[in-house]
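Repro:
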Amino acid sequence: MIVEMECLANPLGTAENPYEHVEAAIKVIQESGQKYEVNALGTTIEGEPDELWALIRKVHEACLAAGAKSLVSVIKVEQARADQPQPTIDSLTGKFRS
């Protein structure tokens, strides 16, 4: 399964670190052990469905725990049936990399 997640924290961070709340979310992803790529407008994560569904919640809650007053998380999920090849980050974007 692949998930793309964008955390729209309010505010994004603090005066000292303008992206502190979003960085807290990314840290949870980094520590998860899942394959991921941080992009300009979100983060793509690849893994097993049960692990990713739980991770999405942790990432969302990390922004709030870091001090965001409110949060909207935008989540896109791609998953194939169990009898079909599963999408990967590389299978979807590999041909566009130099």
